[in-house]
Each structure stands twice: as C-alpha cells, then as structure tokens.
Amino acid sequence: MKKIFILFGLFFILTSSKVTAHEYYLSVTEINYKAESQSLQIVTRVFVDDFEEVLRKRFNDDIRLVKDNEEGPVRKMIERYLGQKLQLESNGKMHQLKYLGKEYDNDQVILYIEVGEVLPFTEISIANSILTDLFDDQKNVIHVKVNGVTKSLLLQRDQDKKILRFKN
C-alpha cells in the first residue's frame, strides 16, 4: 500500500514540469462513489504521447490529440478504447462507462468518465489494462473512494484485475 502512494506521489512530482519524454509508464485513476446520485465519478490521467500512440496503433494512424479535436472520430476512438480497457463490476453487474470528455494538463490528458445507476456495494471488481498492450512495464494506479474510505491498488500487464472490499 505504501508503495502505491509513493508511486502516486512520484507521478505528480515528475509530471509537474514540462518534460516531453519519459522513461516510465504510469496512469492514475480515481474512482469516487457518490451515494446520493448512485454514480461512480472517474478521472484517469495518462501521458498524452502514450495515449495518442495507443489510439494510433489500434484505430487510426493519423490521430492527433489536441484541445480542439474532441468530437467526431477522436471521441469515438477514446470511448471505444476506454470501454475495452477499463471495466468495473459491483453487485454482480458490469457497469457501462460514459465518457464525458478530456482536458490537458502539461503532458497529461485527463479523461472524465461516469457510471450511473450504481447501487451501494461492499466490493468492486476493477480491470484496468490501459496502455498495457503498448508498454510491457505500464503501471496503472487506482484509488477508489466509497463512503469516505479510500483504498488503492496497482494493476499491470500480468495482473490487470483486482477486487476491493469496503464495509457497509
């Protein structure tokens, strides 16, 4: 657990300056359960160049991720990729992700996702294989907050799915 928080801190320290190349592959996903709206609010941060590269290899060699290019084919590619690489299940139900949009922060793209109609749960299964098909050493850190309690996990190519348990 301590290792995950160190990785998380390292990610933001190293990405706070404008560095065009990096030698590590890390994404951070924050999932927040909102009981009042019975929804999961999800924010995923990935490096722009890595995300662009995976979209190019999977869908379209000409794709460019830029602020003004959100709608149309780029949006559909992002939705499709996230649907394939990020899966959430609680109460025996697979959840449908709704991609809301993106924004940029230096060399990162921040992806906003929502899942509606999520009944209260005590465990959630998370599969996150974002960028693991492109980079062998890709690490995906996930933080899940339910009823004020945050739990974290680290997923990677050979272990891309885990279950987190919460008390009622």
List the helices and strands and how they pair.
Layout: H1 2-15, E1 26-34, E2 39-47, H2 48-58, H3 73-85, E3 86-90, E4 93-94, E5 98-105, E6 108-115, E7 123-128, E8 139-146, E9 149-156, E10 161-165
Parallel strand pairs: 1-8
Antiparallel strand pairs: 1-2, 2-6, 3-4, 3-7, 5-6, 7-10, 8-9
Describe what this molecule looks like in 3D.
Helix content is 23%, strand content 40%. With 168 residues, the chain is of the alpha+beta class. The strands form two sheets. The protein has a six-stranded mixed beta sheet with strand order 5-6-2-1-8-9, sandwiched between helices. Strands 4-3-7-10 form a four-stranded antiparallel beta sheet.
Defining traits:
globular; four-stranded antiparallel beta sheet; single chain; 168 residues; alpha+beta; six-stranded mixed beta sheet
Order of helices and strands: HEEHHEEEEEEEE
CA-based shape = globular
Number of beta-strand segments? 10
Counting helices, strands and paired strands, the structural category is alpha+beta
Give the termini separation. Answer: 22 Å
Please outline the major beta sheet: 6 strands, mixed
DSSP strand content: 35-45%
Helix content: 10-25%
| CA-atom Rg in angstroms | 16 Å
Q: What ranges have pLDDT less than 50 throughout 5 or more consecutive residues?
A: 13-20
Largest sheet: spatial strand order:
5-6-2-1-8-9
Number of helices: 3
Give average pLDDT, whole number.
87
